[in-house]
Each structure stands twice: as C-alpha cells, then as structure tokens.
C-alpha cells in the first residue's frame, strides 16, 4: 500500500480523461451527441465516486502510515471526485420543476387534434392517445407559457396596425 497515493493520482488522470472524452466525444466526431449524453448519464457519477473512493482509501492508508505525500495525493483525488459530484448533489438538493409529459403536449389545448394514423394497437405503448383534458392543459400552460410571437394572430397584427 506504499503506492496508494500514486495510484489515486493515476485514477484521477484516467478519470479526467474518461470524463473529458464523454463530454467532448461528440465534438471530436467520435459519436453522436445523444450517445455522449447517454455515456454522461450512465458513467459520469459512478466514475466520480470511484475516483473519490480511491482517493479516500489512499488518504486513510497514508494517514495510518504517517506519509504526507500520499495523504496529499489521495486528497487531490478526493477533491477531484467530490467536485465532479457537485452536479449530482445540486440536482438532489434543488431538483428541477417537472412539466407535463412531452407526449401529452398539444398545440391546441381546448380542442386537441386527434391522431389519424396511430391507434391503440401499438405494441408496447405505455401512453394513451387520448388527451388528458383541462387539468393537463393548465399544467401545460404553466410549464410552457406561449409568447405573443407564437400565437396565431401574430402575423396579422402588423397588418391590422398598419390599417
């Protein structure tokens, strides 16, 4: 366990490279952005936890052996792992507001358009094809307010004002 601090620093370097690859792989043309998002959602937090755990292990080992360099190396790994876990903590402490499910969003909440091609025989479908009604319309209006530029009358407003 003499090299636990150096191993922790190696884990930090490998973790930083892996995290950078996850975040910038799409920009480098290695994969599509959706793949990068999937990698981030799946592996970023566990990787940060592994880095922090290896660093904490190195700190404990070197503290018992009274080796300052190893404690510092392990501490760097703990700090790096903890910093990478900040978004997880912030999302847990202050979660985002939930909006209406995206499959229930309608362009016309008073008279929603009906599906013409889809029917209830869809295999494995978990959502209904029927709009949920006024309660969902109110939730949609609160979550996705319509700006004046998005209304049907907007293109006519300059013409009317000009007359």
Structure description:
With 163 residues, the chain is mostly helical. It has helices spanning 4-24, 33-65, 68-84, 86-93, 134-143, 157-162. It folds into two domains: 4-93; 102-162, no CATH class. Helices cover 58% and strands 0% of the residues. The protein is elongated.
Task: Describe, in short, the structure shown.
With 163 residues, the chain is mainly α. It contains six helices and no strands. It has two domains: 90 residues; 61 residues, no CATH class.
Residues in helices, as a percent range: 55-70%
Task: Find the structural class using helix and strand composition.
Answer: mainly alpha
Mean pLDDT: 84
Give the terminus-to-terminus CA distance.
Answer: 85 Å
CA-based gyration radius:
26 Å
Global shape: elongated
Show unreliable segments.
none
**What does the oligomeric state look like here?**
single chain
Number of distinct beta strands: 0
Q: What is the number of helices?
A: 6
Any idea how many domains? 2
Strand content: under 5%
What order do the helices and strands follow? Answer: HHHHHH
| Largest β sheet strand count, sense and barrel closure | none
Which tags fit this structure?
single chain, 163 residues, mainly alpha, 6 helices, elongated
Question: How would you summarize the topology of this molecule?
Answer:
Blueprint: H1 4-24, H2 33-65, H3 68-84, H4 86-93, H5 134-143, H6 157-162
Helix pairs in contact: 1-2, 1-3, 2-3
